[in-house]
Amino acid sequence: MSIRTRPNPRLSAWSAAARSIASSSPASLFRNSLQPVAHDEAQSDSRNVRMLRMIMFGKPGAGKGTLSGRLVKKYDILSLSTGDLLRMHIQDKTEIGRMAKEIVAHGGLVPDELMLQVVTSKLDHLHNKHWILDGFPRTLAQGELLNTHLNKQNTPLSLVVNLDVPDDIILSRISDRWVHLPSGRVYNLSYNPPKVEGFDDETGEPLTKRPDDNPEIFARRLEKFYSTTSPLLDFYARLSQTRISPPPHRHPHQHPHQLAFHTKPPHRLMLQSISGTTSDEIWPQLETVLKDAFPGLKERVDSADIRRRHSLSDAIAAASVAASMPSK
């Protein structure tokens, strides 16, 4: 014979209260705080794409401009020229531009701190863009300023490339170099000569030599490069040996007591030295570095379309040749 007991309303109320207190106890709050916050998958994927933030070093005439141009033409990368940014500020009469114009007008050099503002006025708006910075930094002091600023913005440099081209090769390249000053097109009599010697391919206008394209001036520029760039490369070599942990990500609707976890792996600067005698020799090495280290880097649509059209044309041509061959 089973005995049924009538539930005690007062006891049930006490049990419910106890469960409520237990769920809000410090221990329970601590256990809840250890639960990772669920994030939107698309947002997580976009955060985990490694962004290319790149500086390229090389001796005068090593091919920095040529290689940067190829990267920008083929891939979705922005190229930022310090000189162009400074001229833009002066032309737009910004506060930075007015200060720089006054300094230059009096024959002075723009201070490092002001040049940093010129550069970061653009970089600070490119958090989710791949970019190459040209013309800055040029000294160790500038490099340290830029590194501190980018780290504060959580957008540290990701790649530093040094183009290692022998001095005698560069001297020979400069001796054979001719330019079309209005457009900036560069020709070299050894490997990229104009169609008509002495004249620009597109306009037919005469080519000229750069004033600093002579052995004496080149020797001075080379000496200055070694004295200023070597300390910079040593600085970046030290940075490449350290890892930077990104700040933990907090969801906008996350409870204050919940812990925030790192959603990205620690960042480490990549320093790569690439050797070669011509831009054509260096290009495939540089492209391999970017493809391996930045798999999220996309080709421009027009560049991919051109390559697909070429591939289709090659396939059609091969099929036509095969069809025209007599069968055995």
UniProtKB/TrEMBL annotation:
State the Gene Ontology terms under molecular function: AMP kinase activity; ATP binding
In terms of Pfam families, this protein maps to:
ADK, ADK_lid
Residues in domain Adenylate kinase active site lid? 177-212
User: Keywords for this entry?
Assistant: Kinase, Nucleotide-binding, Transferase
What residue range is the signal peptide?
none
Q: Which InterPro entries match?
A: Adenyl_kin_sub, Adenylat/UMP-CMP_kin, Adenylat_kinase_CS, Adenylate_kinase_lid-dom, P-loop_NTPase
What NCBIfam families would the database entry show?
Answer: adk (TIGR01351)
Q: Which family does it belong to?
A: Belongs to the adenylate kinase family.
Q: What is this protein called?
A: ADK-domain-containing protein
Species the sequence originates in? Lentinula guzmanii
Question: Taxonomy-wise, where does this protein's organism fall, top ranks first?
Answer: Eukaryota, Fungi, Dikarya, Basidiomycota, Agaricomycotina
